[in-house]
Design brief:
Layout: E1 12-18, E2 24-30, E3 32-34, E4 38-40, H1 54-58, E5 61-62
Antiparallel strand pairs: 1-2, 1-5, 3-4
Length: 99
């Protein structure tokens, strides 16, 4: 996606996260575009913006190039999601034969 502030192509944002020792730092978080008008960033409750109001949340997300909030639109939606990934077995993995 292109940062809407500086126009540079970016594949991640910098998101401020709490570390185990209680300090915080910006980490690279991959971005995924959905339906052409939404961008998803998967983080957990260690995000420093978790539980804050939208204006404060925007201060914790920045473009890696210009260090500004990379969107003109000022809405941030937060969802509590746990993503579970399971893998199906294949015939080869089960010791089956082909043919």
């Amino acid at each position: 996606m292109k940062c809407e502030k500086c126009g540079k192509e970016i594949d991640h944002a910098l998101v401020n996260m709490f570390l185990r020792d209680g300090s915080d730092t910006y980490i690279k978080v991959p971005i995924s575009e959905v339906n052409g008008n939404a961008v998803i960033m998967d983080v957990d409750q260690n995000w420093t913006g978790y539980g804050l109001i939208e204006e404060e949340q925007m201060e914790t997300i920045s473009c890696p190039c210009c260090k500004q909030f990379p969107f003109k639109h000022k809405e941030v939606q937060v969802y509590d999601i746990v993503r579970i990934v399971c893998f199906k077995s294949t015939e080869k993995a089960l010791g089956g034969t082909e043919g």
